[in-house]
Design brief:
The protein is α/β, with parallel strands linked by helices and about 325 residues long. It has two domains: about 1-90 and about 320-325, Enolase-like, N-terminal domain (Enolase-like, domain 1); about 90-310, TIM Barrel (Alpha-Beta Barrel). It is about 40% helix and about 15% strand. It contains twelve helices and eleven strands. It has helices at about 25-40, 50-60, 65-85, 90-95, 115-125, 140-155, 170-180, 200-205, 220-230, 245-260, 270-280, 320-325; strands at about 1-5, 15-20, 100-105, 130-135, 160-165, 190, 210-215, 235, 285-290, 300-305, 305-310. Strands 3, 4, 5, 6, 7, 8, 9, 10 and 11 form a nine-stranded mixed beta sheet that branches. Strand 10 (about 300-305) and strand 11 (about 305-310) form a beta hairpin. Helix 1 crosses helix 3.
Length: about 325
């Protein structure tokens, strides 16, 4: 995780973050320190659209959604935190305030769980009050996927929403066979059947009547637009920590709304609750088991299967910096944690 703190001349501090899956963090930190920090000096934090475009143009030739997108995302989140604090409003209300709560689903990394471990995790999610759950599929042996999905559906019953996530593990022929076999278990969506570049494969699979969710590996607005216009996605899943922050996420959400598509999220549930509560086309909020809850003074609140947006000004995240200190991997300020 890479965190960013931005302070205004009025003394308001905004916090943003992005994260990787084990590589690239030091490069993002250098982009922040060497390229974006000097660019931000003297900017008006209330002009988030102007600053977002300046950051994008400054880095687009070397980035266009790669590491640069992660860095821009972290800064943009911090600026929106400042903007909402300055207005005395929670972020979700400043952005539009469509609702104060959003349905949430529980998801983890469970592909290599035994069936018994997987069922125990489902039991735990249900005990927490979730009405929607997601499990991984994509084993080398399709029969293993079928057996696991069947076991989960038997355990949770017909009324609990069940999503499936293949994490880009299939070719088109493999996905077609899998969809034919798994359709009987009433999946709400199939997530990331392919790598994101295969837009036509997404569209071909979606044409078979299975709702497709994707977006966590799409990092530019143009990428999302192409996937939507090809008919390759039914549930759009931008991640504000890599798709341009709050500004980028909202652009994608509105683009989806213009195409009559719902928007969901990936990770960072403590931030995405604000964005989904701000828009009219919100679907489910993803709540990860491996979220940042233990490092936050006030973790996400869940009520009857829904995530509740906080009323604190800004995004309301208050990191327990002393607890995070043990995970610092480089010296310097708190832009590295």
């Amino acid at each position: 995780m890479v965190t960013v703190c931005v302070q205004t001349d009025a003394g308001i501090k905004g916090t943003g973050y992005t994260y990787t899956v084990g590589s690239g963090g030091s490069a993002i930190t250098r982009l922040l320190a060497d390229e974006l920090a000097p660019l931000l000096c003297g900017c008006d934090p209330r002009c988030t659209e102007q600053t977002w475009r300046q950051m994008w143009r400054h880095l687009h030739y070397v980035g266009r959604g790669g590491l640069a997108g992660f860095a821009v995302s972290a800064v943009d989140i911090a600026l929106w935190d400042i903007k909402a604090q300055a207005g005395g409003e929670p972020l979700w209300r400043l952005l539009g305030g469509a609702s104060s709560r959003v349905p949430a689903y529980a998801g983890g990394v469970d592909l290599h769980f035994t069936t018994e471990e997987l069922l125990a995790e489902m039991d735990d999610y249900l005990a927490q009050g979730f009405h929607a759950l997601k499990i991984k599929v994509g084993h080398d042996d399709l029969k293993q996927d079928i057996e696991r999905v069947a076991a989960v559906r038997r355990r949770i019953g017909p009324d609990v929403v069940l999503m499936l996530d293949a994490n880009m593990r299939w070719r088109l022929d493999e996905a077609l066979r899998a969809v034919k076999a798994l359709r009987d278990f009433d999946p709400f969506w199939l997530e990331e059947p392919f790598e994101p570049d295969y837009e036509e494969a997404h569209a071909t699979l979606a044409a078979r009547g299975i709702p497709i969710a994707t977006g966590e590996n799409l990092h530019t607005i143009a990428e999302f637009q192409r996937m939507m216009d090809r008919g390759g996605v039914s549930f759009v899943q931008p991640d504000l920590t890599n798709a341009g922050g709050v500004t980028g996420w909202m652009k994608v959400a509105h683009a989806a709304e213009c195409r009559n598509l719902p928007v969901s999220s990936h990770g960072a549930h403590d931030l995405h609750v604000h964005l989904l509560c701000a828009v009219a086309n919100a679907s489910y909020l993803e709540v990860h088991r491996f979220g940042l809850d233990r490092f936050l003074a006030a973790p996400l609140t869940l009520e009857d299967g829904c995530a509740v947006a906080p009323d604190r000004p800004g995004h309301g995240l208050q990191f327990k910096w002393d607890d995070l200190e043990a995970f610092r991997i480089a010296s310097g300020d708190r832009s590295q944690a």
